[in-house]
Structures are given as C-alpha cells and as structure tokens.
Write a structure and sequence with these properties.
The protein is an alpha+beta fold and about 80 residues long. It is built from two helices and five strands; from the N terminus they run E-H-E-E-E-E-H.
C-alpha cells in the first residue's frame, strides 16, 4: 500500500473531473465525490487501484495496487504536475 498526500489550491470539482477523464482515457473507473472515492485503471503495464479522500486543502491518495517497478516518487512527481 502506498499513500500520497498532495496539497491543492484549485477547485476540487475541477480536480475530480480531471481524475474521472483520466480514468476514462485508460478504460478505468473513478467513482466518488468531493469527500472520498475510489479508482481503478491500467497504465504503464499494470493496474492502479485505490481510493482518495479530501481533507481540508489536500487530497490523500492511497494505492492498494500499483505496478511494482514504479516507485512512489515517480507517482508523486506525476501528481505534482497535475494537482495544483
């Protein structure tokens, strides 16, 4: 299990819309609201399965499954580019 907490200053609804579209692009699922939710998709040769919850101005993302060869820091760097 890998958990990443990312602060954000933008609109949570826009952030969630981005997540839903990204999951759809990878034939995945994204179900949730402005408090919490779940996602699953396949990318980079493996499955990403997890959940998120919004706490104040941060989103806590927990991956229950991710490709073994993709380190946490790579995921954090990717998220930093997309979560503002």
């Amino acid at each position: 299990m890998t958990t990443i907490t990312m602060p954000f200053t933008g609109n949570i609804n826009q952030l969630l819309a981005y997540g839903k579209n990204a999951a759809k692009d990878y034939q995945g699922t994204f179900v949730g609201d402005t408090n919490k939710g779940q996602f699953a998709f396949n990318a980079l040769g493996g499955d990403f399965i997890g959940e998120y919850k919004v706490v104040s101005n941060a989103i806590e993302i927990t991956f229950f499954k991710k490709p073994f060869l993709i380190p946490k820091i790579a995921i954090e760097n990717f998220l930093k580019m997309h979560i503002k």
